[in-house]
């Protein structure tokens, strides 16, 4: 008997690590999606588009986000607007992870630890 892997949605502000994490999860065979909730004024778009079993919210401090995305206008006002659009997802997230001081590998490992502990019991 095989257990279905959960569908994972990853949300967060620009440059928080979503693309890197989703790319890694997909490479490992997970059904991972990035619904771009930070760009939508539809509060529950992440639910409508992804219908996830697990919702992961990545974040980082504004200085780190700007450092990760040089040349983009990630000023405090813009990032506050993104976080406002992400409020519904934040409130419903299964895992909230601050990536400010984490490497992509550490982010992946923490996410996998969470998934193993919370969704794959008995698998």
From TrEMBL:
Residues 47-118 form the RapZ-like N-terminal domain. Signal peptide: none annotated. It comes from the Bacteria. This is RapZ-like N-terminal domain-containing protein. It holds the Pfam family RapZ-like_N.
């Amino acid at each position: 008997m095989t257990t279905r892997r959960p569908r994972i949605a990853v949300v967060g502000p620009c440059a928080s690590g979503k693309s890197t994490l989703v790319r890694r999860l997909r490479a490992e065979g997970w059904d991972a999606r990035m619904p771009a909730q930070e760009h939508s004024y539809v509060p529950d778009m992440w639910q409508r588009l992804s219908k996830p079993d697990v919702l992961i919210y990545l974040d980082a401090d504004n200085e780190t986000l700007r450092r990760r995305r040089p040349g983009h206008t990630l000023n405090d006002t813009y990032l506050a607007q993104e976080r406002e659009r992400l409020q519904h997802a934040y409130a419903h997230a299964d895992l909230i992870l601050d990536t400010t001081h984490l490497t992509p590998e550490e982010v992946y490992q923490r996410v996998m630890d969470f998934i193993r502990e919370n969704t794959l019991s008995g698998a």
